[in-house]
Structures are given as C-alpha cells and as structure tokens.
Amino acid sequence: MDVLTDAEARSVLGSLSREQPIMVLLVDDQIVVGEAIRRALIDQPGIEFHYCSDPLDALSVAKKVRPTVILQDLVMPSVNGLDLVREYRGDPVTANIPVIVLSTKEEATVKRDAFRIGANDYLVKLPDTIELVARIRYHSHAYQMQIQRDEAYRALRKSQRELLETNLQLQRLTNVDGLTGLSSRRYFNDYMEMQWRTALRGQYPISLLMIDIDHFKQYNDHYGHLAGDEVLRSVADALRRNCKRATDVAARFGGEEFVIALPLTGAAELEHLAKGFPALIEKLRIPHAASTVAPWVTISVGGASAVPDQENYSGLLEAADKALYQAKRAGRNQAAVGV
Fold first, then answer.
1. 256 is catalytic
2. Share of the chain above pLDDT 70, in %
C-alpha cells in the first residue's frame, strides 16, 4: 500500500500553489454590458472571460465553465437576480464560487439582501476597470486558495488513512501467526499478561491449555513439510472453532505447539475441556503412517488452572507444560491436567 512521503506531500502542495487561471462568468441580459466587461478584461493577464446572456441558462453554464468568480446582474427578465444567487448557493458544484452582484445603483436594502443570501460583493455597473479587475482577482484568488487548501487537506487525510491502514495491517501481521491464522505468541503473551492482572485484582480463576501434535517430526519426514503445514492449519482451525467464548484465545506457541488461554475458567471446567480436544483432532482422520500412537494425526494436551497470587503467569505456564509432558509420557493422544 502506497503512502505519501514527505517529499510527495510537498510536491502535491507545490503543484496546488502554482498560479491558476482566473475564470470569469458574467450573467447579464444586456449584450452591451457583456461587451463592456469583455473589453475591460481582454488585456488582463491570466483572466478568461465567459458570458451568459440568458439567466435561465446561468446555473448550467456555471457548472460547465466552473468559474472562479461570477458577475451577476440583479435585474433581468424572467429571473430575479437574487433568486439566481440562491440557486448557485443551493448547488454543490457552485455553492462556494464567489458571486459579485451588479446593480444599476447603490441601494442599501438591495445590498443587504444580496449579502444575506450569499453574495460576496456588490458593485454598481459599470464599475471602473481597475476596481473591477482588483475585485475579480481578490475573490478569485481567495476561492482558489480555498480549493487548494481543501485539496491539500484531502491529500493529507488520504495519506493519514493509508498510514493508519498500513499500521493496522502491520499490527495484524504482528498479532497473527502467518501460517495458521491463530494469534501469534507475542499477542498471546500480551493477552495473558492482561488477563492475569485482571484475574489477580478480582481473584478470578484463569486456565491454560498447551497442545502438541504427536510425532510431528516423523509426519514431516514421511509426508514432507508442505503436508506438515496443512496439518498445522487443520489442527489450528479445529482449535479455533472450539474456543467457545469470546475471551478464549488460541495461539501458535511455536513449531507444532499451540496454547489456549481460558480466562474465568476453573479447574473442573478445564478438565472437561482438555479431555475433549484429543478426540476432536482424532475425528479429523488425517492419515499419519509414521505415528506409533494411531494411524492418523493426534495431539497431547496439558492443562493448568489457578487463581493468581503472584505478579506473572509463568507458574501457570510451567504447570501446563508439566501436564503436557505427563500426557505424552502416558502414551499421547490424551489430556492431563495439573494445578
């Protein structure tokens, strides 16, 4: 996923800050006024002039031309100039385009109404060329700067979203085992530390299962490592499906070893859960001709439960590991639970 670098962001901002042409749209039914404005602007550098003589077409022309400023007559046949300003402001394409209204005389109430509905400026026509050009440039540049700021802000937000998505993806990769899709050992350690502290404060039970695929080295030697990877995924998927509560977390501990954190689970419930897992994997009937335990893949399970009385869960992990060793020594394909 590409994210804007500082240099690329500066390039975007630089391109936005370059001088943009000024696009003037005059809406006036009097052709003589249109010609006068055109002549006033014809020699002005960086200014393009567009003229609309029919006020009924003004909005559609404005949406097509995308002017940086609209010069708008107030008194025209068939359309009230103030109503037309309202139309500009009501359309998302033209809502923010500056509008300079043109009137035949200086009239305070008309000027008030024009500003109230969203006009940006008021001129008595025909204005002096110097004043007209100055106001056109002023409002156009303000509008262009607003567009540039909006585009820069959108570019920045896009970059921030992409960076956030990349960080979340990296976090997911850190928290998830790439082969099996279970939680990673790192995530498991963080999760257990959090749950252990919670159980210590509230004096709740917390349990742990350690699971090992029986004779997995022999499986790899006999069937190959690609087949071994498939076994790891199949076992992991079965373990995940049988974590019944939202707080139960299965993780790949390393190699062919898995662990399951079981917060709020006491010793009696743990023993029942632990004894169900070997049968669960045995039902998959994954052939294992190199096993001395069964003709298919099996697992050994060790479990331990405790109400925390110390600062870390290392004792619980050690107890589960010892129970796993007992299950193996007793013949594998079974579960043992310690304390």
1. yes
2. 92
